[in-house]
């Protein structure tokens, strides 16, 4: 997630630029990728053929795997060089070298967490084969860089720099950044720890209710969940027995101190830009498909961005490689795709992979207390190049990075301070500022799964590319570490399917809620006790149901070790299960309908039904019985089928109601800052509201600012009235004009567009009104602090029928990252219509363009 914050930094850089249109014309003339002809490259041993279909999906044919990955590096460079280089700079802490002072805090963050250090550790742990493939890929990128000096495109021209040569460890830096993006606990643990100090145990239990007992899990379906009992009282972990603040609480309060309330302009909306979202993956046995072959679906939900996050490609070699699917520019791995034997897809496992550790310094201040005595704090002195714009070129910022056995000390780079600085939002001044934490805090370190590089992690996917069956695929992923993911697999030969949690889960004492609280480095019981790896984690093959539905829900009903409290609300998993159960013989057209479904059982059964019960139930509230607008709104809800289409009216009403309901229920106890922290991942408040609505007298319904005790129905009425008032002011008094798409719009924005109308006109892809919402299969999330613009959605779509010799896939915009290239946006229309493009494993059509890389 930090990546999406940082892209906003580029906006400010454009303020320095002039002659943007001239730059654009020159860049267009020089930087468009070459799709046809021959290119001679020194040092290349064999010719490599690169075919491109009508959507510029590259089909690479090579003599061996090394050459295939070489060509992948070349085409990644052709299409996505700026995206790759900018992401690399994030990880290496080198943004300030091109952006100046504005990005210093991100560089300090990246160097403190040490993505470059971790990449070197990963390289040391990699096998000879993995090193060979990464080196070959890097050589391909560098062949492009070396031959295109002065022709890299508008972004490089605008910032007046060119990319350095690519190193194999740069692939690993990007890999660790992706892992960090999935590390939701960095945010939720901070928020939970802060809130836990301010409210009592009863409030806290309802605020973080956990995954519902009756909701579906991946392996066990709808069986009842036997949750682990908590071994501690949450407040007792923070308070001494006499009720006074503990040392931990005093430390944490300094760490999480707030600065101010929400700006008055927020008015009806409280909270930061919502993050999160999720992903869907469905594996269906051949017993339940029309073709008799196993099928796999995957659509991963990520922050809206342009260029697309993924690059769609097909790799083939004479040594047996034949794999197609989605790669991340900068990494030569098909993370979601298929070979001739298997298809695979991923969703976020939502596992809690990090902990904050409070360190007690020794008397000298150079060490910290551990169960085994005092240990020294290691210090790395570093310097960050910072671009200046006064003619002097650059200066260097010196920093000291402090390392412990519990990870790097992060007290100076507080979680929400990062969000405040880089989300590019004027409203976010409510969050803690560095002045409130820097210089008057204890030492707080972060222990993260990604801090460890113990195995050949990238090699797991290289092996998966060649896997022949389900067992080989699962075994290939045994050493994968982070992020923890759900892997769904479909096999061609047997028609069987399999599911496996991949990654390693830290083993810790305490319940899943306890693991959201900080730990104390001096306590032996708080230390991590090793890892549970894939071979010991939940997996299943050939289920009796004939399918797996993975939608960021728990794998199993019972968990032998704590996993997380970050689960997505169960609505998507429930709806996907309903849809799959209703289709006796699945095929590709039906799967397309499933993956683009807009119905929300949550909004219909939990939100709309509650409103209708209050106003049109057994004992209805009649205060508004003569209000035409009120009655029209209720009529819409009463006749709603639950589908959240672009033109739907009920969807607009219910989303406005949901935002107000969260605010009215929680703001009076939490206040602006803590509600912003709590709402940062929007799956958390939605799950909480679903829980609260089942309890009419839950303590959260009471408004502590009033003398009387409010109930659920009081807050429902207040929120519904607020929603209608807001919509009347926003969209007018004619309810027939309250179409969802007027509020819920989608733009794939080029990162430079905020500071240049010219760039916005060329580089932005404006879709208009978007269907779906936060609880629909077609994920379409917005942030609670600034509804209702779409912020998170499907970043790719893939369907594979293993009785065929290909896959069907699409990107939200296009395969090219060059805004002047037609393939920058040529998938946008079909993606919105739910259409897919066939990517064959064997056929190469005569109409495709052909580029040959030849030895010089």
Structural write-up:
The protein is 34% helix and 18% strand. An eleven-stranded mixed β-sheet has the order 1-30-2-3-6-7-8-9-17-18-22, covered by helices on one side. Strands 4, 5, 23, 26, 27, 28 and 29 form a seven-stranded antiparallel β-sheet that branches. Strands 16-10-20 form a three-stranded mixed β-sheet, with helices on one face. A hairpin with a 3-residue loop joins strand 8 (336-338) and strand 9. The two termini are 43 Å apart.
Helix proportion range: 25-40%
Beta-strand share of residues: 15-25%
Q: What's the number of helices?
A: 26
Specify the structural class: alpha+beta
C-alpha Rg (nearest Å): 26 Å
Low-pLDDT residue spans? 1-18, 223-274, 415-440
Mean pLDDT: 86
Largest sheet: 11 strands, mixed
N→C terminal distance? 43 Å
| Strand elements, count | 30
Lateral arrangement of strands in the main beta sheet? 1-30-2-3-6-7-8-9-17-18-22
**Form type:** globular
What is the secondary structure topology, with strand pairs?
Layout (H helix, E strand, L loop, with lengths): L1 H6 L1 H5 L6 H12 L5 E5 L6 E5 L5 E5 L2 H28 L3 H4 L4 H10 L1 H11 L2 H20 L6 H6 L8 H14 L3 H12 L4 H7 L39 H10 L22 E6 L10 E9 L7 E7 L4 E6 L8 E3 L3 E7 L5 E6 L7 E4 L2 E4 L1 E10 L6 E11 L2 E2 L6 H8 L20 E6 L8 H9 L4 H7 L8 E7 L5 E6 L2 E2 L12 E2 L10 E2 L6 E3 L5 E4 L20 H12 L5 H8 L5 H16 L11 H11 L11 H29 L4 H10 L19 H20 L8 H4 L1 E4 L8 H7 L1 E5 L22 E3 L2 E5 L4 E5 L17 H5 L4 E4 L8 E7 L1
Parallel strand pairs: 1-30, 3-6, 10-20
Antiparallel strand pairs: 2-3, 2-30, 4-5, 4-23, 5-26, 5-27, 6-7, 7-8, 8-9, 9-17, 10-16, 11-12, 13-14, 14-15, 17-18, 18-22, 19-21, 24-25, 27-28, 28-29
């Amino acid at each position: 997630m930090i990546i999406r914050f940082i892209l906003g930094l580029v906006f400010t850089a454009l303020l320095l630029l002039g002659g943007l249109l001239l730059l654009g014309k020159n860049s267009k003339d020089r930087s468009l990728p070459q799709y046809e002809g021959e290119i001679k490259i020194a040092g290349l041993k064999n010719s490599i053929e690169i075919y491109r279909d009508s959507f510029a999906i590259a089909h690479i044919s090579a003599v061996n795997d090394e050459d295939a990955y070489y060509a992948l590096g070349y085409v990644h460079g052709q299409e996505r060089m700026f995206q790759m280089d900018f992401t690399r700079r994030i990880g290496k802490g080198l943004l300030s070298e091109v952006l100046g002072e504005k990005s210093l805090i991100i560089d300090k963050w990246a160097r403190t967490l040490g993505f470059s250090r971790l990449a070197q550790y990963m390289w040391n742990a990699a096998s000879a084969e993995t090193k060979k493939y990464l080196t070959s890929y890097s050589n391909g990128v560098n062949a492009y860089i070396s031959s295109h000096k002065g022709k890299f495109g508008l972004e490089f021209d605008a910032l007046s720099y060119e990319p350095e040569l690519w190193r194999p460890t740069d692939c690993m830096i990007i890999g660790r950044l992706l892992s960090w993006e999935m590390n939701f606990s960095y945010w939720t643990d901070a928020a939970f720890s802060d809130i836990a100090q301010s409210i009592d145990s009863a409030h806290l239990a309802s605020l973080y209710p956990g995954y519902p007992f009756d909701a579906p899990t991946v392996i066990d379906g709808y069986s009842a969940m036997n949750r682990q009992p908590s071994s501690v009282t949450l407040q007792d972990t923070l308070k001494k027995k006499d009720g006074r603040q503990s040392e931990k609480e005093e430390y944490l309060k300094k760490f999480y101190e707030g600065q101010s309330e929400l700006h008055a302009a927020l008015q009806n909306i409280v909270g930061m830009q919502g993050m999160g979202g999720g992903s869907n993956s469905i594996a269906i046995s051949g017993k339940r498909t029309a073709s008799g072959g196993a099928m796999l679906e995957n659509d991963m939900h990520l922050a809206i961005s342009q260029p697309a996050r993924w690059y769609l490609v097909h790799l083939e070699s004479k040594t047996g490689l034949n794999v197609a699917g989605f790669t991340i520019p900068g990494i030569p791995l098909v993370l979601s795709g298929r070979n001739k034997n298997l298809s695979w897809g991923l969703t976020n496992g939502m596992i809690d992979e990090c902990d904050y550790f409070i360190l007690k310094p020794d008397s000298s201040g150079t060490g910290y207390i551990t169960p085994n005595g005092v240990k020294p704090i290691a210090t790395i002195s570093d310097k960050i190049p910072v671009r200046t714009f006064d003619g002097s070129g650059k200066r260097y910022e010196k920093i000291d990075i402090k390392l412990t056995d519990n990870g790097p000390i992060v007290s100076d780079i507080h979680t929400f301070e990062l969000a405040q600085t880089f989300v590019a939002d004027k409203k976010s001044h409510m969050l803690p500022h560095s002045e409130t934490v820097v210089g008057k805090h204890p030492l707080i370190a972060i222990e993260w799964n990604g801090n460890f590089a113990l195995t050949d992690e990238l090699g797991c996917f290289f092996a998966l590319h060649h896997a022949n069956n389900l067992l080989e695929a699962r075994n290939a992923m045994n050493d994968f570490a982070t992020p923890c993911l759900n892997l769904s697999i479909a096999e061609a030969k047997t028609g069987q399917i399999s599911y496996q949690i991949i990654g390693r889960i830290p083993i810790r004492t305490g319940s899943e809620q306890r693991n959201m609280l900080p730990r104390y480095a001096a306590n032996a019981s708080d230390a991590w006790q090793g890892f549970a790896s894939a071979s010991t984690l939940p997996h299943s093959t050939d289920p009796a149901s004939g399918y797996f539905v993975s939608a960021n829900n728990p794998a199993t009903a019972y968990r032998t070790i704590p996993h997380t409290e970050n689960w997505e609300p169960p609505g998507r998993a429930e709806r996907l299960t309903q849809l799959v159960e209703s289709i006796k013989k699945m095929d590709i057209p039906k799967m397309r309908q499933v993956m683009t479904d807009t119905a929300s059982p949550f909004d219909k059964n939990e939100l709309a039904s509650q409103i209708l019960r209050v106003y049109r139930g057994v004992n209805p509230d009649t205060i508004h019985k003569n209000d035409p607008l009120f009655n029209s709104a209720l009529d819409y809800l009463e006749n709603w089928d639950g589908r959240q289409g672009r033109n739907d009216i009920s969807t607009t009403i219910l989303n406005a109601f949901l935002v107000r309901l969260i605010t009215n229920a929680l703001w009076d106890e939490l206040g602006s800052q803590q509600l912003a922290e709590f709402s940062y991942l929007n799956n958390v408040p939605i799950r909480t509201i679903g829980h609260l609505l089942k309890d009419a007298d839950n303590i959260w319904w009471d408004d502590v600012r009033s003398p009387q005790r409010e109930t659920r129905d009081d807050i429902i009425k207040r929120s519904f009235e607020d929603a209608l008032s807001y919509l009347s002011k926003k969209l007018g008094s004619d309810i027939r004009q309250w179409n969802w798409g007027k509020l819920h719009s989608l733009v794939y924005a080029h990162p430079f567009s905020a500071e240049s109308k010219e760039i916005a006109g060329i580089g932005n892809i404006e879709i208009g009104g978007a269907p779906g919402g936060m609880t629909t299969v077609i994920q379409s999330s917005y942030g609670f602090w600034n509804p209702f613009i779409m912020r998170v959605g499907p970043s790719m779509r893939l369907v594979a029928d293993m009785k065929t010799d290909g896959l069907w896939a699409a990107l939200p915009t296009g395969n090219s990252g060059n805004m002047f290239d037609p393939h920058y946006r040529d998938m946008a229309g079909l993606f919105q219509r739910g259409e897919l493009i066939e990517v064959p494993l064997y056929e190469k059509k005569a109409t495709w363009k052909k580029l040959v890389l030849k030895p010089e």
